[in-house]
Amino acid sequence: MLRVEQFKIDDIYIPTARRKTLHPETVRLLAEDILENGLKQPIMVRHDGKRHILVEGLHRLEACKWLGETTISGYLVQARRH
Question: Which of 19, 61, 62, 76 sits between 20 and 30 A of 25, alpha carbons compared?
Fold first, then answer.
């Protein structure tokens, strides 16, 4: 069973292909929702031996950055490279 962990936002690498799917308006709306209700769904990251790599949750991650958060809740998963 997965358990929620805290990850430093600055230590999470976002693959280039994922960055291209970012929608600023979605980030803004999510940030407002997180501010009012908290982060409902943790992100997913994998570890490649050197760093944590984002698997799922780009907009949630960017919304938390926008809010000035330094950590984010997430699951450490084993996933294949994209």
Answer: 76
